[in-house]
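$ ./design --mode recover --in tokens.txt
reading tokens...
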């Protein structure tokens, strides 16, 4: 078990839909541990397996009111929306106003293959949507309003980290301050 390298935007794994977990074995339990350790080390409020280069439908989260993991998730979203800022560990230092459903009911499995249903609103609902998007190859800037997205793309092009992945043949480990994203990095 160890802290893994976090893949950054530009890495193809982040644009690839992840495969469902079929075998609930020790390897899967180790993946959940690696995800959890990497998320806590970053630190982040959530992390999806593709962010550490594993294209499987697994994510973890850790916010004040709730922590856990979910495998092969599906979401039911409220029509009611919420406003709020959001960041991502794969976009170091960047936070944008990101519209999300206010409430989400997440269904999936735990690492032992037992079905679980978790209901969340506000930040927890936001985390579930952000991480489930990662499992579908979608990143949070895809959810921004048009004008905000233009700003984000410009910020990304001007960031120190963007382009390093392809130039170096691997993704660098970027340490971000816990204060930069105010616990909003997912
Ligand atoms: Zn993210």
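writing sequence...
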């Amino acid at each position: 078990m160890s802290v893994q390298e976090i893949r950054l935007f530009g890495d193809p794994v982040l644009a690839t839909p992840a495969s469902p977990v079929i075998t609930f074995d020790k390897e899967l339990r180790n993946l959940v541990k690696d995800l959890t350790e990497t998320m806590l080390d970053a630190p982040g409020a959530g992390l999806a397996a593709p962010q550490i280069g594993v294209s499987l439908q697994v994510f973890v989260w850790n916010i004040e009111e709730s922590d856990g993991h979910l495998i092969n998730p599906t979401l039911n979203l409220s029509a009611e929306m919420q406003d709020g800022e959001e960041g991502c560990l794969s976009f170091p230092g960047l936070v944008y106003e990101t519209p999300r459903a206010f409430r989400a009911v997440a269904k999936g499995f735990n690492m032992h293959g037992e079905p679980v249903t978790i209901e969340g609103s506000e930040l927890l609902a936001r985390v579930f949507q952000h991480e489930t998007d990662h499992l579908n190859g979608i990143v949070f800037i895809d959810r921004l309003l048009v004008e905000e997205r233009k700003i984000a793309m410009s910020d990304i092009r001007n960031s120190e980290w963007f382009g390093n992945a392809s130039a170096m043949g691997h993704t660098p480990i970027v340490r971000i301050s816990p204060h930069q994203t105010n616990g909003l990095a997912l």
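exit 0
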